[in-house]
Design a protein that fits this description.
By secondary structure, the protein is of the alpha+beta class. It has 3 domains: 2-227, Aminohydrolase, N-terminal nucleophile (Ntn) domain (Glutamine Phosphoribosylpyrophosphate, subunit 1, domain 1), CATH 3.60.20; 241-377 and 487-553, HUPs (Rossmann fold), CATH 3.40.50.620; 564-631, no CATH class. Helix 2 crosses helix 3 (100-111) and helix 27 (582-588) packs antiparallel against helix 28 (593-605).
């Protein structure tokens, strides 16, 4: 797990190594164990190292092929690297290190573009082929590791390409920094998703490589982006439920075992939910003593620590729980906003950061349950949509439900009744991927034009583009929803939140349920084995079976969040009023001051629950002042 950066140009001269050094200096938190910069004619790569496999200097990066024929800067882990190494050795390749980086470097030499089909894990990398002066950037199948890039000269990359693990690092490149302008469509999409979905970034001149995508660039061809992998929604497995349950169990067990391989201590995040409990149970079967970590909250509506403790006791793990005071979480808000080089308004990044900080005291790698909800229909919205999909779309129903929500007394608890009705109302007039996007949105997308200032208002028409595009290749509402959660919500939301929270404290997070074998198997299961009535993750619960107490299997899903709504009326009130004051809104010029002021007043008075919208506005405005005004 590392931080990467680089520049490729169409000239034979060596690009500016000083800029790449400045870029990786921004990524120290991602790789505190070492750094490196290496230049070749036309290309320079940089790397910050968090040493996980082969801690020796032989595993350092950027790594070059014999004779400087190629160069690689790589962020992530290849979990099948031992088998790939044996195959490459039999083909005549010699290895100097025990690292998975060298395996990937030789795999790219042997199979070229086809190497991506051979590697399984999480990765984002830059590869320079000195023989053809070609740059290749690639991301893993589900988008676990981030990668930003900026075409230089023009959109085709006539002047080359710069790339980095984080947007803030990329802004150390002079040309990228000089054309630092926002993307209006990205701003509109942010208020649908609470993050900017790929391929856009908050800046018009910077793009994000998508999950399962590859970029190639050369002076002759310019920038070309293609999809090398995407989920297949046209396959359905057949078989006995018992046999399928056993097969799922075998696949998850193998996936967890592969992710326990490291030359540093490994632990497990444990929430007491289905997914993390399954991962922890499989880890215990593979390893005699497993460390697990959980955090608790003083607010009982957000606290799951007792369930995690129950699972840990049942499994016999070395368990650590830290109950967080409200002040500890609140104190993290502004530093977290300061660290966001691209806005991200999922409030669960706060407890996730503190959980990562707790684990980092004992381990360098932590396994989690991310991906289970997406591949096994784990969100409550799947159950609701199953019922609504049998009914005709009712365009006026959303407004009626919205009026009902406005009459309910707001609550500050996690998923209060008024909050759920309010969010539910936003999706009633749609279906498929768009319905689910609307259900999760901080505000009704139909009201975006009222929020945005005139200069940005036209972008509201494109606010749902990412959600609509995500369902391409699907034939049913169920598959469309699954595709949305995988391609948008998971890839650009959940995984990037986890990456930022864990890498902020130099902790590697691994997701066994997003193992290629596990995910492709689950996505091919019949709908009834993922969702049965109101029972989500049906087959996963069966596979977990008697590994954990029955009460854990029967628990409803509970999100990992923070009481943002109450904080905005209390300890964050001053931040809210300062950041979203009418004067600030007029100065920024992105949002309508009167619209924002009305929503602030309604929330502070207790008349409405606008927690998601107001926190999203705070994130964007804080980012604008931090990265545009002050820069």
């Amino acid at each position: 797990m590392c931080g990467i950066a680089g520049i490729a140009t169409p000239t034979a001269a060596v690009p500016g190594t000083g800029e790449v050094r400045a870029m990786i200096a921004r990524l120290v938190h991602r790789g505190p164990d070492g750094d490196g910069v290496h230049a070749m004619p036309g290309c320079v790569f940089g790397h910050r190292r968090l040493a996980i496999v082969d801690l020796s200097p032989l595993g350092a990066q950027p790594m070059c092929a014999p004779g400087d024929a190629a160069m690689l800067t790589f962020n992530g882990e290849i979990y099948d690297f031992a088998a790939l190494r044996a195959e490459l050795e039999s083909a005549g390749y010699a290895f100097r290190s025990r690292s998975d980086t060298e395996v990937l470097l030789h795999a790219l030499d042997r199979w070229g573009a086809g190497a991506l089909e051979h590697v399984h894990g999480m990765f984002a990398f830059g590869h320079w082929d000195a023989r053809t002066a070609t740059l290749t950037l690639a991301r893993d199948r589900f988008g676990k590791k981030p990668l930003y890039y900026a075409p230089l000269g023009d959109a085709s990359g006539s002047g080359g390409v710069a790339f980095a693990s984080e947007l803030g690092a990329l802004l150390e490149h002079a040309e990228v920094r000089a054309r630092r302008e926002i993307d209006p469509v990205a701003v509109a999409q942010f208020f649908v998703h609470e993050f900017v979905p790929q391929p856009r970034s908050i800046l018009a001149g910077v793009r994000k490589l998508g999950a399962g995508e590859r970029l190639t660039w050369s002076a002759a061809t310019g920038v070309r982006v293609d999809t090398w992998w995407r989920p297949n929604f046209g396959v359905r497995l057949r078989g006995d439920t018992r046999e399928l349950t056993e097969e799922l169990s075998r696949r998850v067990t193998r996936a967890v075992s592969r992710r326990l391989v490291a030359d540093v201590p490994v632990g497990v995040f444990l929430s007491g939910g289905i997914d993390s409990s399954f991962v922890a149970a499989c880890a215990v079967e593979a390893h005699p003593r497993v460390k697990t970590f959980a955090i608790g909250f003083e607010d009982p509506s957000f606290d799951e620590s007792s369930h995690a403790a129950l699972v840990a006791k049942h499994l016999g793990t070395d368990h650590t729980t830290e109950v967080l005071s409200e002040s500890a979480l609140v104190d993290l808000v502004v530093p977290t906003l300061d660290a966001m080089d691209e806005p991200h308004a999922d409030g669960s990044i706060l407890p996730t950061t503190l959980l990562a900080r707790l684990a980092r005291r004992s381990v360098t790698v932590a396994l989690g349950g991310d991906g289970g909800d997406e591949i096994m229909a784990g969100y409550p919205t799947f159950s609701v949509d199953q019922v609504l999909s049998r009914l005709p779309v009712m365009p006026g129903a959303g407004r009626l439900a919205g009026l009902l929500a406005a009459r309910l007394r707001p609550g500050d608890g996690n998923f209060s009744t008024a909050f759920k009705v309010q969010q539910f109302a936003q999706g009633l007039g749609s279906r498929g991927a768009e319905r689910h996007a609307r259900w999760l949105a901080p505000m009704d997308p139909d009201d975006l034009r009222s929020l945005l200032a005139p200069a940005l208002r036209g972008a509201a028409a494109n606010a749902l583009d990412a959600a609509r595009a995500s369902s391409e290749g699907t034939a049913t509402d169920f598959d469309a929803a699954t595709a949305f959660y995988l391609r948008v919500y998971l890839a650009d939301g959940v995984l990037q939140k986890v990456d930022r929270a864990t890498m902020r404290v130099s902790l590697e997070a691994r997701a066994p349920l997003l193992d290629t074998e596990v995910a492709t198997f689950c996505l091919a299961l019949p709908e009834s084995l993922r969702l049965r009535g109101t029972t989500t993750k049906y087959l996963l619960r069966r596979a977990l079976g008697n590994r954990v107490p029955r009460s854990i299997l029967e628990r409803p899903k509970k999100g990992f969040g923070a009481p943002i709504g109450r904080w905005l009326r209390g300890p964050l009130r001053e931040l809210l009023l300062d950041t979203l004051s009418p004067a600030r809104m007029r100065l920024g010029g992105w949002f309508e001051p009167a619209f924002v002021a009305r929503h602030v007043d309604e929330h502070l008075s207790g008349a409405r629950d606008h927690r998601k919208l107001l926190f999203a506005l705070i994130c964007v405005e804080h980012w604008r002042r931090r990265w545009l005004e002050a820069a």
